[in-house]
Amino acid sequence: MLETKRLVFRELDQLDFADLCEILQDDAVMTAYEGAFTDEEVQRWLAKQLDNYERWGFGLWAVIKKDTGEFVGQVGLTMQRVEAEEVLEIGYLLKRKFWQQGFATEAAFGCKQYALETLGAKTVTCTIRDKNIASQKVAERIGMTRHKRYVKYYRGVEMPHYVYY
Questions:
Q1: Domain ranges for the chain
Q2: Cβ(82)–Cβ(124) under 8 Å?
């Protein structure tokens, strides 16, 4: 599996439910999703990642600090629909206590390299909520630029997004 200087990646499993709740039920982390998830939504999120591993061989992975073994967040690759196109996307959601320490950039860059070098992807994207400035900066730090805007509907809400390549 994937490793970076400070992080190791592994597949999520049911034992990660509490850590996922810490991320997905934090209103500050989930601002771009219009609010925190319920336990049921967290379980569906986890099930989707497990399905992605089976279907695609990748998904959002647990990201663990090498030096402490702490669960930092979930970062990885997913297939997303952007208008009429299926795109390979880098996604990242970290526990708030790990924000602004370079972990999102480090992990996202590792995923970008993995997608291009190991999977042989021709392109990889980030689709980012228009108001999520921190995530936009991560995409820019890993060498991506904003290409277009589109509207995604999620949880019954119209959510403008930018596509970075």
A1: 7-164
A2: no
| Segment 109-125, tens digit of pLDDT | 999 999 999 999 999 99
pTM summary value: 0.95
**Cα separation, 134 vs 124, whole angstroms:** 19
> How would DSSP label each residue in the chain?
--B-SSEEEEE--GGGHHHHHHHHT-TTTTGGGTSPPPHHHHHHHHHHHHHHHHHHS--EEEEEETTT--EEEEEEEEEEEETTEEEEEEEEEE-GGGTTSSHHHHHHHHHHHIIIIIS--S--BEEEETT-HHHHHHHHHTT--EEEEEEEEETTEEEEEEEE-
Architecture of domain 7-164: 3-Layer(aba) Sandwich (3.40)
